[in-house]
């Protein structure tokens, strides 16, 4: 349950068709002028790789984080040209490097389709049948919309099943890299400083969207603030927070604390140790694996912080108190009691089922056992052949017609695949599977007496799936082609697919379906109790957050809201100027020449309500001008997945002034500075 009313704090990840206008008026005396929200919504961009961004010029220039663009930077890099490590700047349009498989989405419209989805549920349906009916209705709605509009169309589940909204998106699939700084400046401080503050990172990256071979001309883009943010100023964040569980019941959070999070963390720790060791094999091995490593380290640190929040007895007690208060109010009304009282108990029962399915679901369906890009491709091809033969409404969600173009963009990507790294990853994950689930019958069926290393070698070395034309040929041949294929990775995907589908279906029927039905009841109870002042949990869809630029107290010390470029050099010196606290030569050259204005603000913190997925979100002022770029939260913010607290939790941003000063004085990107600021 929500810890308190969003009207009394800067809490909330608000959907754009239900913004907290009364709170903004009462708390900040701010009334958005006509068109303000539409302009911000239309300027915001979602990265399909996971993250946010925004249009910042009339010529399709898009700003995001270096770590959001890192997947593309790694795929564009080679042994001789490491853009991820060394940075990149295109001096002309012709030099802008095309991303191999990046899709960007801009939200065009929102339509409430709750009534239509719920109408598909017939009287007498149990939870599993009801969930199947919902999925079928959602698929039909998405296809109708896509056929009618040509836009990407997704039915989004809000309030864990309380509402269903159709989101339509304009897609950009011709996206090109324009600028990225060196990794050492984008991730200055490395893993030790991740989720910490003060910070001194230039975590920024610029792309450009193209249409018909020319730079896109978006109708809306955000103008740059040369003045940046001020202490105490109201700011807004438009981005795509990935997932929160604030509306989850106490029983659901207990399951996460005691079951799901420990299993996930063990996996992350194990994979991190493997990647650290693999990177020691040499410079090229480190280059190939480092994006995976930093992604895993980020996930591990975030989950450790989140688990710490769940293990905080006072936090869980507040969640339980809020839930019990709502249940008491329901129990006092006989009509509401009859409708809603059992919902919490049914969800609790579903958590017990989830616990029994956790490991087989994680290893088989989520792929913990098969850490290989080639296996991911093989599974998509195997399932694509099966799912395409079915009516659209009966398919697995990710194979519906509404998402087919996006799926094929990833499937037929020409991003590099490194055989030696593939073998090592797969061997490690197979060994981990055998260790954690030694008695599962599929383990021996897959290994067939071989060591994990020998099996991985056979699967990878014999596969042709690294070749895009081969993938396209198999996809075109459908079920017949898959059945006749002698590709060992295809055979592996086929061998485990029935079991993976079975555990997925069991979870959908006995966990997801139960939760959808009963969270919908709890959502109705919440609406009746609080009205529309309840915001939905994050779903990687566009949300508006707000807050003030504000420092905080930690360990008896005052942490100021801003850091400066001078502070970056001081921080490096305090750590011996050694990795990961070694600023690039370009920074020292700009400093030594006197070109760099050291007093320029570099990072700042605010009370805006953000989580993972918000990375790359623009931070704007009341005039919708860019004053910053979200790239992190402090360690105290990691509990925000489960509940909001603005006492010390902070969102961390790159200051617009720091970005512009770096582009001007360190990287000499006159073309980019002129495009952003007209200078």
Q: Can you describe this structure in just a few lines?
A:
With 679 residues, the chain is of the alpha+beta class.
Can you tag this structure with a few keywords?
single chain, 24 helices, EC 3.4.14.-
Helices and strands in order:
Elements lengths: L20 H8 L7 H8 E4 L3 E5 L5 E4 L1 H11 L6 H4 L1 E2 L7 E2 L5 E9 L1 H6 L7 H23 L2 E7 L4 E10 L1 E7 L2 H4 L3 H4 L11 E7 L2 E2 L7 E2 L9 E6 L10 H30 L3 H28 L2 H19 L2 H7 L2 H23 L7 H16 L15 H8 L7 H18 L4 H7 L4 H10 L6 H17 L3 H43 L12 E6 L3 E3 L2 E3 L2 E3 H10 L10 H9 L7 E6 L11 E3 L4 E9 L17 E5 H11 L3 H8 L2
Parallel strand pairs: 12-20
Antiparallel strand pairs: 1-2, 1-6, 2-3, 3-10, 4-9, 5-9, 6-8, 7-8, 9-10, 10-11, 13-14, 13-19, 15-16, 17-18, 18-21, 19-20, 20-21
GO molecular function, one term: dipeptidyl-peptidase activity
Keywords: Aminopeptidase, Hydrolase, Protease, Serine protease, Signal
Function: Catalyzes the removal of dipeptides from the N-terminus of oligopeptides.
Oligomeric state as shown: single chain
CATH class of the domain at 6-103 and 173-245 and 536-677: Mainly Beta
Distance between the termini: 49 Å
The largest pleated sheet is described as: 11 strands, antiparallel
Write down the overall mean pLDDT.
96
* CATH topology title of the domain at 6-103 and 173-245 and 536-677: Thrombin, subunit H
Contiguous runs where pLDDT drops below 50 for at least 5 residues = 1-8
Percent strand equals 15-25%
Net shape: globular
């Amino acid at each position: 349950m929500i810890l308190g009313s969003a009207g009394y704090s800067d809490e909330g990840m608000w959907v754009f068709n239900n913004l907290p206008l009364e709170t903004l008026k009462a708390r900040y005396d701010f009334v958005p002028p006509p068109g303000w929200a539409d302009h911000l919504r239309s300027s915001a961009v979602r990265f399909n790789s996971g993250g946010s961004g925004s249009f910042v010029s009339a010529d399709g220039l898009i700003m995001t984080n270096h770590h959001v663009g890192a997947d593309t930077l790694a795929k564009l890099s080679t042994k001789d040209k490491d853009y991820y490590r060394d940075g990149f700047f295109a001096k002309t349009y012709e030099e802008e490097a095309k991303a191999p498989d990046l899709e960007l989405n801009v939200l065009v419209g929102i339509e409430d389709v709750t009534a239509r989805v719920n109408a598909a549920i017939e009287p007498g349906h149990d939870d599993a049948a009801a969930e199947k009916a919902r999925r079928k209705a959602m698929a039909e709605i998405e296809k109708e919309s896509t056929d009618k509009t040509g836009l990407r169309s997704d039915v989004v589940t809000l309030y864990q099943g309380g509402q269903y909204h159709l989101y339509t998106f304009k897609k950009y699939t011709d996206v090109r890299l324009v600028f990225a700084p060196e990794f050492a400046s984008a991730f200055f401080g490395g893993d030790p400083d991740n989720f910490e503050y003060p910070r001194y990172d230039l975590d920024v990256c610029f792309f450009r969207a193209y249409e018909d071979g020319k730079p896109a001309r978006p109708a809306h883009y955000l103008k740059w603030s040369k003045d940046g943010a001020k202490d105490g100023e109201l700011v807004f964040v438009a981005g795509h927070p990935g997932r929160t569980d604030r509306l989850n019941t106490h029983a659901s959070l207990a399951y996460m604390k005691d079951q799901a999070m420990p299993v996930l963390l063990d996996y992350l720790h194990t994979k991190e140790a493997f990647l650290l060791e693999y990177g020691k094999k040499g410079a090229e091995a480190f280059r190939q694996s480092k994006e995976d490593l930093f992604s895993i380290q980020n996930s591990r640190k975030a989950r450790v912080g989140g688990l710490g929040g769940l293990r905080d007895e006072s936090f869980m007690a507040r969640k339980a108190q809020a839930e019990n208060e709502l249940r008491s109010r329901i129990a006092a009304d006989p009509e509401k009691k009859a409708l809603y009282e059992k919902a919490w108990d049914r969800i609790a029962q579903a958590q017990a089922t989830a616990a029994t399915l956790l490991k087989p679901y994680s290893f088989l369906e989520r792929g913990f056992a098969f850490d290989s890009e080639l296996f991911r491709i093989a599974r998509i091809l195997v399932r694509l052949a099966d799912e395409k033969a079915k009516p659209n409404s009966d398919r697995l969600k990710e194979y519906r017609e509404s998402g087919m173009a996006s799926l094929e963009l990833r499937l037929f990507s020409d991003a590099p695949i490194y055989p030696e790294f593939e073998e090592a990853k797969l061997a490690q994950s197979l060994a981990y599977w055998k260790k954690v689930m030694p008695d599962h019958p599929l383990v021996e069926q897959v290994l067939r007496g071989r060591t994990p290393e020998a099996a991985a070698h056979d699967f990878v070395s014999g596969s042709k799936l690294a070749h895009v034309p081969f993938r396209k040929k198999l996809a075109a041949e459908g079920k017949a082609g898959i059945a006749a294929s002698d590709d060992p990775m295809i055979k592996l995907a086929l061998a485990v697919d029935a079991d993976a589908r079975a555990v997925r279906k069991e979870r959908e029927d006995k966990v997801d379906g139960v939760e959808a039905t009963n969270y919908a009841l709890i959502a109705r109870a919440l609406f009746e109790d609080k009205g529309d002042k309840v915001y939905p949990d994050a779903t990687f869809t566009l949300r508006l957050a707000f807050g003030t630029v504000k420092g905080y107290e930690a360990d008896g010390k005052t942490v100021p809201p801003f850091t400066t470029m001078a502070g970056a050099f001081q921080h490096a010196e305090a750590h011996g100027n050694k990795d990961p606290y070694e600023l690039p030569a370009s920074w020292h050259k700009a400093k030594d020449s006197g070109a760099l204005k050291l007093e320029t603000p570099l990072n700042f913190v605010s009370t805006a309500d953000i989580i993972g997925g918000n990375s790359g979100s623009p931070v704007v002022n009341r005039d919708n001008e860019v004053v910053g770029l979200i790239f992190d939260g402090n360690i105290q913010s990691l509990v925000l997945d489960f509940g909001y607290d603005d006492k010390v939790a902070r969102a961390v941003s790159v200051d617009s002034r720091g970005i512009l000063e770096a582009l001007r004085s360190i990287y000499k990107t006159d073309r980019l500075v002129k495009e952003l600021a007209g200078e």
